Amino acid sequence: MHDTAAAITALKSRLGSRVCIMGHHYQNDAVVRHCDITGDSLELARRVPDITADHIVFCGVYFMGESAVLLAKAGQQVHLPAPDADCAMSLMSPAESARAVLRQLHDGGRRVIPVAYVNTTLALKAVVGEFGGTVCTSANARTVMRWALDQGQGVLFLPDRHLGRNVGKQLGLGPDDWHLLELGADGLSPAERDPAHRLWKTPLLLWPGCCPIHDHLTVEQIAAARAAHPGCLVMAHPECRPEVIDLCDGAGSTSFLINEAARLAAEKPGSTLIVGTETNLVDRLGERHAGSCTVLPLGPAICPDMGKVTEKNLLATLQAIETGTAEPLEVDQALCPPARQTLTRMLEICAAS
Do residues 63 and 126 touch, judged by C-beta distance below 8 A? Predict the structure, then answer.
């Protein structure tokens, strides 16, 4: 491992400004230490347009690489050290299924605004763009959903039902204001196609997807944490189940959780923070604030796809760039204009808020 790390450092030095390595917070420490830019999905999306390097090496899952391609400058190449690193949540909202649902809703008189979590495929983002929608991240979901609701036509939030419900509750929506789609083989279920069905008037429609990693965190784990660490604070990512979030002292994006850990370490030394999100990030926060604040995971939550990015395949990617044999991420160019529009619309909404 030491030899691999040294080889990466030497390669980065030789490649210089030609390469920029980006990494999501859920990457392991061995990879993160080589990144020039780290962040959550929103921060990384914001940073891509300002990168001047010829090559962007994205340490994350596939949809993140696609987003980087959409936001990169003409001529820039985006490389994924682990092209097989996918996102289970992103696969829960097939583009054609979403198009069928949106078409059925529109044909029935419900011109809802689709809001897709950024954890979705390029094809799904293109469908959302076609129907006048946008994307969001966990950091700006509240702002984006507020914008969509203000259009007065209702919102279809996909694919994460937990994030959709949690944000809806923050905006004052109750159980009568949201409906979890049942879905049939070709779009809405037969029952949902009935004009008398509640979905035709419900402000918030939720796609039946979730993040399997955050979905596994439970209220029982919160009870156990509070029993083991009296006086502790519990915070979690809003991809967790609503009943979990209801019992937390705070909830927010990865950047929010990072900032809260730093705040506690500075303002309440000796305190204990239990964090419900991907364990690589929690462990890193624990090491960062050791001696000031104890940071512990709510439960085991390792994303196997994020773990597919390693120092070994990062090194191989850099070597291929140096020798001119690297194969950059290629996307369907026909999907890019509407998909890119969803990302730029998100950034514009947030800039105006």
Answer: no
- Whole-number Å distance between alpha carbons of 279 and 236: 12
Residue 239, helix vs strand vs coil: coil
Label residue 352 by pLDDT band (50, 70, 90).
Answer: confident
Average pLDDT over residues 155-163: 97
For residues 109 and 92, is the Cβ–Cβ distance under 8 A?
Answer: no
Domain that holds residue 37: 2-86+306-330
In 10 A of CB 70, how many CB atoms?
Answer: 22
User: Could you give the CA distance from residue 18 to residue 295 in angstroms, rounded to a whole number?
Assistant: 37
pTM confidence score: 0.90
Does 338 map to a domain? no
Question: Tokens 């918030």 — which residue?
Answer: 204
Structure tokens that stand for 314 in this block: 């990062």
Does residue 339 fall inside a structural domain?
Answer: no
DSSP state of 123: H
Helix (H/G/I), strand (E/B), else coil: 300: coil
Are 34 and 19 spatial neighbours (Cβ–Cβ below 8 Å)? no
Q: Is 167 found in the same domain as 82?
A: no
Cβ 275 vs Cβ 247: under 8 Å: no
What are the backbone angles phi and psi of residue 87, rounded to the nearest 5°? -130, 120
**Same-domain status, 71 and 112:** no
Do 166 and 54 fall within a single domain? no
Cα–Cα distance measured from residue 2 to residue 147, given in angstroms and rounded to the nearest whole number: 49
- Report the pLDDT averaged over residues 300-325: 95
**Cα(209)–Cα(158) distance, rounded to whole angstroms?**
7
Query: In angstroms, rounded to a whole number, what is the distance separating the alpha carbons of residues 204 and 199?
Result: 8
